Amino acid sequence: MSSVDHYTGPANLPEGHGPQELPERFENPGLPEHKPRMGDVDPKVDKRRERIVLALFGFSTLGTIGFLVAYFALPTGKDVETIHRSNLWLGLGLAASLLGIGLAAIQWAKSIMNNEEKVEERHPMASRPEVREGAIKNLTDGAKDSGISRRGLLKSAVVGSILLFPLTIAVPLIGEIGGDWNVSKLKHTMWKKGLRLTQDPSGRPIKASDVTIGSVWHVIPDGLDKTAQPLNEKAKAVVLVVRLDPRDIKSEQIPGASYEGILAFSKICTHVGCPVALYEQQTHHLLCPCHQSTFDVTNGAKVVFGPAKRPLPQLPITVDDQGYLVAQSDFDQPVGPSFWERLR
To answer: pTM for this structure?
Structure first.
């Protein structure tokens, strides 16, 4: 028999602290004595803390104003640099606006509002009239305790910063309304008959002989960099090209749209528009990394898994006299996720 079988409890306990001498009920020790903060007893400190909260709300207001200035003064252009610059300053303004409100609320709660601990006894869910009156009184006392009624400047700062913040959301939304109602732009890409397929991002034309069975190519249209809005055009026209053994192809969306086992499909997922950039060579599946929509290349890029509801549109291709891959036409349907006027 081990020593564990003879265990009788902790040894050398002081008298009156043995396992059989514990009280049946512990008395509630109550709350510790409240120690006032410096701001509770020194009006100068209290005023200084109020100025800190005011400064934080002012910082939030400046952040909102900075966001609006950046939105109008730094519009996005046609290149990545202007988009980066605009997003940077918009993000900094939005961060300052939210950060100022959050820090001001914390500072207000910790340094201005009452910090004395209070106990609320539990009671039945059904409240008596006097309890409801007490709740209303507590809310009234809380409003008085916050100091909002006697701190006019602070109240103005709170209202101003909170009312200004929604402008960071509303102005960009309203500013873009009516900019361009030409929905047909969403239904067509720059692909056309005879336009060469080129490698992304180098722009080098692709010969059919370069595409080996099992390989995958990221493709953009020839001359993309010479368009008025290359980034917008690329967002619609990017294509994935794969080559299969022709015997593995079960069906195509468009008869005769492939060339000797070379297939081209839109790279834009039909779920929410993420780039379908992963190819499973053994299963011949294209995979969207955002929400795992999976498309079967051998069967017209039909959806076999995930939230996407439509196949990836197929780009009909052939070769020109020099053996380079070219488009036969544009896609026969809009690319990417569905939109309201898609079938109109």
So the answer is: 0.57
Same domain, 96 and 193: no
Name the helix (H) or strand (E) containing 344: none
- Residue pLDDT, tens place only, 266-295: 999 999 999 998 999 899 999 999 999 999
- Cα angle 82, 84, 86; round to 5: 65
Do 227 and 154 fall within a single domain? no
> For the segment 110-136, what is each residue's pLDDT rounded down to a tens digit?
888 888 777 777 766 667 788 888 888
Q: Are 265 and 308 in contact (CB under 8 A)?
A: no
Q: b/e for 128-138, b at 16 or more Cβ within 10 A?
A: eeeeeeeeeee
- The whole domain housing 50 covers 38-115+144-173
Rounded CA gap, 219 and 209, in Å? 16
What residues does 296 pair with on adjacent strands? 285, 302
Token duo for residue 25: 């009920």
Residue with tokens 């410096």: 38
Q: In angstroms, rounded to a whole number, what is the distance separating the alpha carbons of residues 114 and 148? A: 13
Q: Is 275 exposed, middle or buried (0-12, 13-18, 19+ CB in 10 A)?
A: middle
Distance CA 165, CA 157 (A): 12
Number of domains making up the chain: 2
Tell me, what CATH number does 297's domain have?
2.102.10.10
Average pLDDT over residues 222-245: 91
